[in-house]
Amino acid sequence: MRLQLCTWPEIETYLARSTGIIVPIGSTEQHGPNGLIGTDAICPEVIAYAVGERTETLVAPTLSIGMAQHHLAFPGSLSLRPATLIAVVRDVVQSLAVHGFRHVYFFNGHGGNVATVQAAFAEIHADSSFGGEASPLRLKLANWYMGRRVQRLSRELFADSEGHHATPSEISLTWHAYPEQARPMTLTPRIAPTAAFGDARDYRRRFPDGRIGSDPSLASIEAGTRLFEASVEDTIEDYRAFLEQD
Amino acid sequence: MRLQLCTWPEIETYLARSTGIIVPIGSTEQHGPNGLIGTDAICPEVIAYAVGERTETLVAPTLSIGMAQHHLAFPGSLSLRPATLIAVVRDVVQSLAVHGFRHVYFFNGHGGNVATVQAAFAEIHADSSFGGEASPLRLKLANWYMGRRVQRLSRELFADSEGHHATPSEISLTWHAYPEQARPMTLTPRIAPTAAFGDARDYRRRFPDGRIGSDPSLASIEAGTRLFEASVEDTIEDYRAFLEQD
Amino acid sequence: MRLQLCTWPEIETYLARSTGIIVPIGSTEQHGPNGLIGTDAICPEVIAYAVGERTETLVAPTLSIGMAQHHLAFPGSLSLRPATLIAVVRDVVQSLAVHGFRHVYFFNGHGGNVATVQAAFAEIHADSSFGGEASPLRLKLANWYMGRRVQRLSRELFADSEGHHATPSEISLTWHAYPEQARPMTLTPRIAPTAAFGDARDYRRRFPDGRIGSDPSLASIEAGTRLFEASVEDTIEDYRAFLEQD
Amino acid sequence: MRLQLCTWPEIETYLARSTGIIVPIGSTEQHGPNGLIGTDAICPEVIAYAVGERTETLVAPTLSIGMAQHHLAFPGSLSLRPATLIAVVRDVVQSLAVHGFRHVYFFNGHGGNVATVQAAFAEIHADSSFGGEASPLRLKLANWYMGRRVQRLSRELFADSEGHHATPSEISLTWHAYPEQARPMTLTPRIAPTAAFGDARDYRRRFPDGRIGSDPSLASIEAGTRLFEASVEDTIEDYRAFLEQD
Amino acid sequence: MRLQLCTWPEIETYLARSTGIIVPIGSTEQHGPNGLIGTDAICPEVIAYAVGERTETLVAPTLSIGMAQHHLAFPGSLSLRPATLIAVVRDVVQSLAVHGFRHVYFFNGHGGNVATVQAAFAEIHADSSFGGEASPLRLKLANWYMGRRVQRLSRELFADSEGHHATPSEISLTWHAYPEQARPMTLTPRIAPTAAFGDARDYRRRFPDGRIGSDPSLASIEAGTRLFEASVEDTIEDYRAFLEQD
Amino acid sequence: MRLQLCTWPEIETYLARSTGIIVPIGSTEQHGPNGLIGTDAICPEVIAYAVGERTETLVAPTLSIGMAQHHLAFPGSLSLRPATLIAVVRDVVQSLAVHGFRHVYFFNGHGGNVATVQAAFAEIHADSSFGGEASPLRLKLANWYMGRRVQRLSRELFADSEGHHATPSEISLTWHAYPEQARPMTLTPRIAPTAAFGDARDYRRRFPDGRIGSDPSLASIEAGTRLFEASVEDTIEDYRAFLEQD
């Protein structure tokens, strides 16, 4: 159930049986020489849609632009500043709260979003904690690539070639979603370097083709399909547990 | 050309031949008893994708959540505050500017976004006008429903039943985009009332089913297809003129 | 009735019979070679004062500095950033709301303020729409130059020489208000160019003497007096209709 | 020389001989039972205009609304929040700096503005101090009632009846400026109480008619005229010394 | 009683007998050639701790970094922007208010904080004054160096050598607190210059060794001990009077 | 070397040999029935001071108040909102950057700070990444309780009784630092519950005495001394590696 494809009376009906919603959140940023710029938004979106269909759960429109300032030295990367993303998350949650949603499950595809979204949750709770009305909101940020089944499968498929950015797992998943966009490619070095980094220029200096520690030449549609199924299962399980939080 | 489905080296190549990009911007808000909540995002998105394909123009991910605070008394409506939307537009434009984009064409589906996006443009230019470096940016907000051909066709098809919110034109266009989501329906009153309004509760009091001045029972997939073609033509013309602005 | 020239007990008395107030809002910015920098503040102020006297309506002090960042390449222009003007409008409205004012009529002299003030209204309503207490506020932005009588008279007097900035209509009105400040002058070219523009430097490049599309050499005190009377009548009519909004 | 009554080429000429400008800043707030709500804006405005004429100094439009949140329990009082006033002062100074003004002399009529305007100055200087370009700006806040001659005269005229808010000195000065607005009145108690206070409701509880420690029944037009002359002299002296600051 | 060294049940007990707390606030900034960078935080901290012990008053952790942008041209100086310090003060006060504290006594060691903290108080009260719930908060900013006994003693000890920054009084007090950190030193010129200043670079240009108008070569541990005792007495008296404010 | 106990010329000298500094950051919040409210600030402070002495590294004043909104239902807890803490971290880093510091090592004692401080780092880098000057800054957040030696020792000492808040490790460390503040106590239940939580009231509902998953009755001064030494070693190692980052 995509929120965009419902009418408001249908949402009124939905709220009578559930106070939960999934909000996919990603990023629009370089993913190495052959990874799609939309990778981090596409991954949580396709999984969320499947979870939504299989469990009759409402799925909000994907927040496609995340906190990716460190990728801005690569053409096509878009970023919100942390303060902006905090405001976006706050406004979305507060909109949902007006309607009676209580369990808001942000389903994330981008590691760079995690700290900022957690800070946003704290901002939202602070309105209550600093003396406002008690809030019934339950907020969770889950990463599609952190589920139990996905982690096991990634290790099995790619081991030390998985790396941290432009990973073969996420590239595979996007090819599962958009098979016509698969761009198999041999990369040099095979595995990209790993390091701490500062601003966007420092990032590009250290990782000239954009990857961190990964070998996405191992990506395949078939791996993507397996990862997709694993993540859908992980997410159904995790979302159901989240809904039970009182 | 969807930015999300490109790699960064492909954007580098694109920038060598064009400094223009289309950014669809919409809203997620009630559209009356039978209109999709995603109407205002779906409309500019499908037109922008077609323009992108026919003219080899890059299209950014759709900004699906707009400034719709006045719709928040209807379940499912999401809104950013004006200050948040200003920050989002600013960050997107500044991200694009880092890469060398100069002509950023926001293609809009929601009247409620217009003032805020214009204020955002002024914020962006102000950084330069208040003494910063001269900015080469050219920014435009165009509404898909304001093109010459679309306006003529809407009048011809729906005349005084077009109204201001949940119009038969926009409902038709979403049914063209998602035919399986068509929800033909007879409405009472046939044409919704029109009035000035204050906050979200005042809006709902004046417009109990969400429509303003419109009769979306006239919507049809066929009308949607004609409006789609009209808007694509309008937009190609307008975007090309915009690109020529030095 | 100028708020500045009342005592607080007098306002207490006023509130017992009316919840309406007029807030003139303008700008301080170049108006071409012979137009006063205060034009956009002077025009709504003198009309508002006359409306205030003829209808016993309270008039707040003029907000003389508006959103005029695009004029900052011309000496003497002052501007607030959009975010600042939004905050000013919000604070003024919230101050008035504390006292029980419900109908706040911003009477404007500067096209560049419109988007920002509309965004400010949305910010104010959002406090309620996002779940706060229902707000009884009714807010309107009216432009002195958009009334029915004024528009007809401008067309009659100046036709295609009216233009968009430093218009003969507004220059005439300031000369009606300050006859000793009339600076009749022949200009070259007679009618200034028209174009889209970016930041302040781009504005000055395109419009070297500050005018857009206008020929203020046609301005006269006599025309100003006629425009003044037309606008006072337009505004009394419009303000009365606004007050009736429940 | 009022900025509002100049053209931009005239300001260009002015800047060739002076980098100084006076910005009157006041407040719109209750001034006791017989004091004008505009008192704190009127006082610095009339003095600044006189200084401007006698010394050929440019005077910006008066910032009529200040930081007066503690007066909001009295009808008609308007206030900006401190953060808003800081933004207004910053934007005005930055606008002036674009044109080459270096000495900006805020001429104030409201004690409640002082801390906030000083904080605004620090915000402006911080842009440079935190690593930006060195700033040539010299900023001063002067209060019309703090000059040497005015202080001596107030003591001579009103001694212990001067008090802290709605003082006979400021009331007298507004009557000098607007003789038709004089509202002589006997007050009970003759001298209002003095105390520390918290928010606006606490203020009204402690000072039921709005005055603090003053007896404005002593106000007179004649006293106002003497105070006006004293302050004009004080201010000319102080402004000239300020201009000499390198 | 240091808040940091209590448990929450102990604070619960404290609140049953008192609603007051002392919050030391200082700065981390250059204090001339031989003054400690922590001077302005150390001074109010040691006095507050003594007052806390002698009167069984709770003392919050010291806010060690203040508004000191004008000192940033000297290595080691840290500053918050005014907007940041306003937010810090607001959050601390609102945290305390949640628990039932009503009398919050900021005890200050840095003149540069005064305007900003006063603006912060106004921001806090504004939440109530603009229409929120009535606030019982009483807020005071007291400077350790402004007490009656301290002022008398400083004049007696240092007369015209006291000056305005890096004064012998504050240097002495830090040596009383940290005798091993005393750095007696002869300075040239003996008394530093005095002047108005703009940004940090302008400050350093005018005061090359950081002092303003002072001769800290007169500082001594013995003077510090006498100033400490004087200030503790001043502060106990002032805090007790503050607590009685209803 | 404590920054507060240095003079500015000494910092000038220090910068000639090192661009690194340690900034302890903690929180002021309830730590269960017998834990000190200052626990999270005291722990990193005492370790940082020891590291500073043993390695001649500069240590900034402790940021004692962190992001702890979820603890506000327990008396004595103080919190900054995330946006405030982001501003504080940004201002501190930018102050340090003005002087030439390049390696800023935030040494943290509070898990609730982590997301917000990471978001702050992204805000700081964003100024460069969005098109500003390239930044040489290297920023790291390290938690005292996450070092290799500390983790091993905590497991050895407390195993499953360590828990997540008011842990025996942190309580022990504060008793090492302030032996006179040790408050040995038997608690019921011995091990506190663990759960996800929402706002401050929800936190208190789930964890009535403030602890999460821990048994601080196991705390001892002796354990604290061992943890202190372990953390000092961990931190010296980690800080040195950080300094080598180019």
From TrEMBL, chains A, B, C, D, E, F:
Known cofactor(s): Zn(2+)
Highest rank taxon of the organism: Bacteria
InterPro entries referenced in this protein's UniProt entry, alphabetically: Creatininase-like_sf, Creatininase/forma_Hydrolase
Keywords: Hydrolase, Metal-binding, Zinc
Pfam families for this protein: Creatininase (PF02633)
Record Gene3D superfamilies: Creatininase
Protein family (similarity comment): Belongs to the creatininase superfamily.
Protein name listed in UniProt: Creatininase family protein
Species of provenance: Luteimonas salinilitoris
Top-level taxonomy: Bacteria, Pseudomonadati, Pseudomonadota, Gammaproteobacteria, Lysobacterales
